[in-house]
TrEMBL record:
Phylogenetic classification of the source organism: Bacteria, Bacillati, Actinomycetota, Actinomycetes, Mycobacteriales
Enzyme Commission number(s) of this protein: 2.1.1.-
Annotated motif Histidine triad motif, positions: 98-102
Top-rank lineage group of the source organism: Bacteria
Source organism of this protein record: Rhodococcus chondri
This protein's name: HIT family protein
Length: 142
């Protein structure tokens, strides 16, 4: 996609600090890192969101993120844990509309966090919600 910054990075027409370059996947440092070592894994083929993403590309993005997360733990960076994070849609915080998996190295008290207002719904409510999602999946979820 011509006006997509991550496509420009994949094409080599925009600069990036590349960590991993595979045939279908590229990983590079985030320019505004949440923590030191925060990077992004993207499919080389443009997909604006999860609904547009080829599942095989999705699998390769996750596999690269998993491999990098493991490598981070034995790197020279301070890493006690890792968050994998993907924002799909404006409401989820997506700002760049080329699918990307955030890989965020974590240390205790690094200040990174996802705010949540967790509830404790009844089993009836949980079952009803599961029903709604199973219906959307078009199967019984098995
Ligand atoms: P989102 O909010 O869409 O999940 O995350 C977009 C991420 O892309 C942000 O963390 C932001 O810092 C990063 N980002 C935006 N523009 C660029 C860029 O031109 N180069 C790189 N390396 N990262 C970018
Ligand atoms: Zn793109």
């Amino acid at each position: 996609m011509s006006d997509c910054i991550f496509c420009a990075i994949v094409a080599g027409t925009a600069p990036a600090s590349v960590v991993l370059d595979e045939s279908d996947v590229l990983a590079f440092m985030d320019i505004r890192p949440f923590t030191p070592g925060h990077l992004l894994v993207v499919p080389k083929r443009h997909a604006s969101g999860l609904a547009q993403l080829d599942p095989e590309d999705g699998a390769k993005v996750f596999a690269a993120g998993q491999r990098i997360a493991t490598a981070l733990r034995s790197s020279a960076l301070p890493v006690d844990g890792v968050n994998l994070f993907l924002a799909d849609g404006v409401a989820a915080g997506q700002e760049v509309f080329h699918v990307h998996l955030h890989v965020v190295p974590r240390t205790a008290r690094d200040g990174f966090g996802v705010r949540a207002n967790a509830q404790s719904p009844t089993r009836t409510v949980l079952d009803g919600t599961a029903d709604a999602i199973r219906s959307a999946l078009g199967s019984d979820g098995a």
